Amino acid sequence: MKRIILFDSIAVMAGLLFANIYNSLVDAENWCSKIPESIIDLRNYYAVSNPGNFYRLFSPLNQLLALASLVLFWRNGVKVRLFLALALAFALIGEAMTFGYFYPRNEILFAADISTSLDQVVESCHQWQSMNWVRSLVVLVALVFQFSALDKIGSWTKA
């Protein structure tokens, strides 16, 4: 049962990583391509739902599973504990980046008056685009720590 939680944690974190990479490769490229038209299209497309709905569900689940993995495997050795603690820490760093850096830019991209703040919209879009790669790297590091813990535990031995 313990391994299932760790496998679930790895799967959710990998899913978040690839969704984030998709946002960089596809979404942000379109958002920043022909401002202001692309931002108007973005707002129209996301009128009902947006990627935030996905991340508001899976980011807390990711953190909960990472914490549960740390608690469940606490007695499996110092290295396992360290790797899982670092995975959780990097997941939390990614979330802190979301709240501290991305939410203010999302507010500009999704709500600012384009007619009076076009330069701010352009700058925010390019900042979002660049920093999302950094956030992806943070999540990748967390995922590597989870796999490192799994390697130390031994996926085929009784955990």
Give structural attributes:
159 residues, mainly alpha, 5 helices, 0% strand
How does this model look, in words?
The protein has 159 residues and is an all-alpha fold. Helices cover 82% and strands 0% of the residues. It is built from five helices and no strands. Helix 1 (2-31) packs antiparallel against helix 5, helix 3 packs antiparallel against helix 4 (78-111) and helix 4 (78-111) runs antiparallel to helix 5 (118-153). The termini are close together. The model has no long low-confidence stretch (mean pLDDT 94).
Overall pLDDT metric: 94
Strand content: under 5%
Gyration radius, to the nearest Å?
18 Å
Principal-axes geometry comes out as elongated
Specify the structural class: mainly alpha
- Give the fraction of residues assigned to helices: over 70%
Q: Major sheet, described briefly?
A: none
| N/C terminus separation | 9 Å
Number of helices: 5
Q: List SSEs in N-to-C order.
A: HHHHH
Q: What is the tally of beta strands?
A: 0
Low-confidence stretches: none
Brief overview, please?
Helix content is 82%, strand content 0%.
List the helices and strands and how they pair.
Elements: H1 2-31, H2 37-45, H3 51-72, H4 78-111, H5 118-153
Helix pairs in contact: 1-3, 1-5, 3-4, 4-5
